[in-house]
Amino acid sequence: DVYKRQIKKSFTPEFRNRLDTIIQFGRLSTETIKSVVDKFLTELQAQLEDKRVQLEVSDAARGWLAEKGYDVQMGARPMARLIQDKIKRPLAEEILFGELAEHGGLVHVDLKGDELAFEFEITAAEPA
């Protein structure tokens, strides 16, 4: 087996003897990658509920996140950083200082060209 030969060539016998098992990981399917995107977006939505903000992400934007957030070498690890940079940071600015600061609202995330674009629907203040 090619992998076993490479491991034998790369690591000392002392190190190899400490291994319980060796697991080979294959490429993730497109559907699995999209599930990872949905997992991260669900976690983000849970965080936004306290701020009275709802998140609506288009299929095109989800596909873009799946494509840009997956790396053959790293798997889906870059996904968290991508969502942090492209969705969480811009939303944080709007929640703290922008349109969503006072009453929250609905955020539509869509793909415009090769970038994510945001549209905000501000929630009306509840009468006192």
From TrEMBL:
List UniProt keywords, sorted A-Z. ATP-binding, Hydrolase, Nucleotide-binding, Protease
Q: Which Pfam families match?
A: ClpB_D2-small (PF10431)
Which InterPro entries does the annotation name?
Clp_ATPase_C, ClpA_ClpB, P-loop_NTPase
Which terms does the record give in the GO molecular function aspect?
ATP binding; ATP hydrolysis activity; peptidase activity
At the top level, the lineage of the source is: Bacteria
Q: Which Gene3D superfamilies match?
A: 1.10.8.60
Q: Which GO terms describe its biological process?
A: cellular response to heat; proteolysis
Listed SUPFAM superfamilies: P-loop containing nucleoside triphosphate hydrolases (SSF52540)
Q: What protein name is recorded for this chain?
A: ATP-dependent Clp protease ATP-binding subunit ClpA
Upper classification of the source organism reads: Bacteria, Pseudomonadati, Pseudomonadota, Gammaproteobacteria, Pseudomonadales
Please name the gene that encodes this protein: clpA
